[in-house]
Amino acid sequence: MERLLSRIARNRVVPFVLRKNTSPLSSSTISTDPSKEAIVSSAAIINDPPPDNSSLPPSSSSGATGSRRSRSLLKFGAFAGITSAVGTAAYATYAYSVDEVDQMTGAFRALSKFSIRDDASSLEKYRAMLYSAALQVPAKIIELYIDIRRSIEDHVRGFTEPSSDKLLPDLHPQEQHVFTLVLDLNETLVYSDWKRERGWRTFKRPGVDAFLEHLAKFYEIVVYSDQLNMYVDPVIERLDPKGCIRYRLSRSATRYQNGKHFRDLSKLNRDPARILYVSGDALESCLQPENSVPVKPWKLENDDTALLDLIPFLEYIALHRPADIRPVLASYGGRDIAAEFIERSKEHQRRMQEQKQHGRFWRR
Known about the structure:
Layout: H1 2-22, H2 42-47, H3 61-95, H4 98-104, H5 106-111, H6 122-160, E1 179-183, E2 190-195, E3 199-204, H7 208-215, E4 219-224, H8 229-239, E5 247-249, E6 255-257, E7 260-262, E8 275-279, H9 282-285, E9 292-294, H10 306-320, H11 325-330, H12 337-363
Parallel strand pairs: 1-4, 1-8, 4-5, 8-9
Antiparallel strand pairs: 2-3, 6-7
């Protein structure tokens, strides 16, 4: 019992004494109606349950939860917008050219740049300003897309397109009748081989010297290779010390398409009716197969005579100068041109002999 009374005294008297000793001497701090203070019984002090937290005001955790939800929704909206924009740009890049995109979006972009009449009311000007501001963001995005795509395509075109629309200088007026003989390099004139003990070595095809020296009298000879010029230049300098080859074209002059470098004869600045392209891979490496003269690829065979066998046909073309070489090549129908030309020449000589004999018979 004494312990209980001492506890009641501490709870009631000690706080009152502390307040009286620590508070400043001001009448405003003294209670004017001390009798109205509630008296707490000792049993209530001992037996009172803990305070109910549910009656307390809501904590700041609910506000933090709401802000996190707002940030999540904002992130989701930004992600969805960026994804849709990227998807739209990807589809437009795949389905339309940059000029088509520019043309289709021109009217929409023009809406963001319309002018407001001077006699318009304040409400109309305000509406027009809001409308223009709402269209400016997508219009600027479209213009940025078009500018970036043009820049990228121009940059890529430098690697995929020939370095110039005129790869060769203009032909001299006195040589307008001369045919252009375009020759591939690897497996046509030379063959490059690598071995561990000696590294890379380049070999000349049998008959290549006689082939170049003889046909240089009739043709404008051009070497057109898909290799880099750091390889082409030193090989041709050693291959052609007499200067039979007038021009040399390397990889920068080819057209890159479907993962392969193609020779584009339309960029040679020559009449396509007077161009012949000789290659061991002619039909697969040239964009103009109608001008191609296929030969057997050379891979170090010692008994190869493909270049020498082709000389009679090429000399015949240079001397007779057909108006268009393409129907002449098409008449061989994929057969070996050198062998077929020999057969046709023999057949022509046989017919000429028969006509001569027939003429002698009638003269008798």
